[in-house]
Design brief:
alpha+beta; Rossmann fold; D-amino Acid Aminotransferase, Chain A, domain 1; Dna Ligase, domain 1; 3 domains; 5-stranded antiparallel beta sheet; 4-stranded parallel beta sheet; 8 helices; 31% helix
């Protein structure tokens, strides 16, 4: 019998939906004949005793989840998410560079360095990308530090704030849509698909509006209803990053689908897998049986 470690923290257990998802994962492993236990940061030394590690806490190269991933990797233990995936997906410049190198379609994108930025450069960026455009601080997650600007002055204002956190920012063509596709990819293969319905008050799947957090709606989409080009693009994007578990966000623009970003540690507690009851079985199989 193999042992699956599920790495969690207090924030992971902050909602009933997250807790239920974790229990489904544990129960699936046990139904497959394996042991499973939750590992908190205080128990991190248990990781080398596991046969596989599934990280279900926020990943970042600067926090304990990355230490957990590295510990598993050093011990030769299969881990989701692996250290390389965490490093790439936590840095939007790195992530988009990987996608570009593999020919994966993304919105028109410009990397802007603090050293080379000026009001004149802001005007040039608008001439290249059009208006409005999206500005991202590279370490953004959960739609934080992502803003839409409509003129060079707005870009200068946002850039000055983001350059306090990073030497680079990302300027990107705005692709209008009422929803994002989320394509789950595991080991270079399609795993699931859903739609994130964007709240009417914003252009992001999660945002603060008038002091209140608004969240996207989630629609799990059966495989036969997922457009082939969306599915293929999601798989290609996942392969460009690595062999782990990824949530690929895709918009269907006027020029066809394009990848907005690739997320490691994708959410599975919001109903993304409703039409895909075998998701956790596939994850456990990948970690313990391959």
């Amino acid at each position: 019998m193999s042992r699956l470690g599920i790495f969690v923290d207090r924030k992971t257990l902050s909602s009933a939906e997250q807790l239920n998802a974790l229990i489904r994962c544990r129960d699936t492993a046990e139904e497959m004949g394996h042991g499973a236990e939750f590992i908190f940061p205080v128990d991190i030394r248990k990781i080398p005793q596991m046969d596989g590690l599934f990280i279900r806490a926020r990943t970042d190269p600067m926090n304990v989840t990355y230490v957990a991933s590295r510990m598993a990797s050093f011990a030769g233990i299969p881990v989701i998410d692996d250290p390389s995936s965490i490093q790439i997906c936590s840095d939007k410049v790195n992530m988009y560079s990987c996608l570009m190198q593999h020919g994966v379609k993304i919105p028109r994108t410009i990397f802007v360095s603090q050293r080379a930025f000026s009001p004149e450069r802001a005007r040039e960026i608008f001439e290249d990308l059009g208006s409005p455009l999206i500005v991202k601080e590279p370490s953004t997650s959960f739609s934080l530090r992502v803003e839409k600007v409509t003129d060079p002055a707005g870009l200068v204002q946002v850039a000055r704030r983001y350059f306090k956190m990073s030497d680079w920012i990302v300027a990107q063509e705005f692709v209008e849509s009422t929803y994002d596709w989320r394509v789950g990819v595991l080991g270079g293969k399609f795993l699931y698909a859903c739609k994130y319905i964007i709240p009417s008050q914003t252009f992001k799947i999660q945002d603060s509006v008038n002091g209140h957090i608004v969240y996207c709606g989630v629609q799990s989409v059966p495989p036969d209803l997922v457009p082939a080009d969306v599915r293929e693009l999601g798989v290609a994007a996942g392969k460009a990053i690595g062999k782990g578990l990824y949530g690929v966000d895709i918009k269907e623009g006027r020029a066809g689908p394009c990848v907005i970003e690739v997320n490691d540690n994708p959410s599975l507690e919001g109903g993304e897998d409703t039409a895909y009851p075998g998701v956790y079985r596939e994850i456990v199989h990948t970690l313990l049986e391959t």
